[in-house]
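PROTEIN DATA CARD
Card holder: M28 family peptidase
Chain length: 308
Origin: Flavobacterium polysaccharolyticum
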Amino acid sequence: MKKISLGLLVLFGFIANAQSGIQQSEVTRIETELASDAMEGRALFTPGIEKASAFIEAEFKRIGLTYYKELQSYRQDFLIKGKKANNVIGIIPGKSKPNEYVIFSGHFDHLGMKESGDDKIFNGANDDASGITAVITLAEYFKKKNDNERTLIFVAFTGEETGGYGSAFFSNSINADEVVAMFNIEMIGTDSKWGKNSAYITGFERSDFGTILQKNLVGSGFNFYQDPYPQEQLFYRSDNARLAALGVPAHTISTSKMDIEPNYHKLSDEVSTLDMNNMTEIIKSIAISSQTIISGKDTPSRVPKIKK
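Structure generated from the sequence above:
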């Protein structure tokens, strides 16, 4: 029998922990609720998005997350063109590095409903109920694990589909210099172009964020790749963009085949089209790959700031 290094034993321990802590049944429960017809497509300023917000808030309360800064609830309210909207934010305070932040995020808004038709609801199962499902599941995983040295911030953004309003407001509420990394999760419900057990990271070449994640996954069978759709400019098309522009290693993790994804922004983006088993494995891999960042062992290099 060959000797097994201490590093591999630690990795296997992380994998076993993630395997036991992140269950497909729970992933399916959350995803199914967020993408249900009752949410009416989660369009901005509608009863449906209010239902989605209330569901996420209830999940954060169930998990036992604390409030963000001076907020008195999980809602971060703000105005968009004179109308009230809100992000949903929950916190797990860091033990030894409370002023160093690691963000896990996605967006909970989508396209709403058509006026008529047999199927008139844009359920947004992949875009981006899958990302919010990951955020909630990771929040529960890390809360139970209870060993994060850095403070973890879990954010469900609103207004992504209409201009990134939620992430813009949030980015102005936090000191970007104190944000160590941002895991923005967008459309992970379908297989990537490389098949199962894989995903890509937008802006991979802009920091060593992806390199750190991949290092933590050695031996797991999961791989992160560079964004294969550079022509789509995805790095600046999701909620990571606002903090990335301020120098934060803020990247989006996705599996969406942007050239041939059949249900993207269509009525057919429903739970039945998702690979729930693979999605669960992706969430587990995000949990494993983030370990050295949330522990304070690794600090990703900064992204070049965008000059105003």
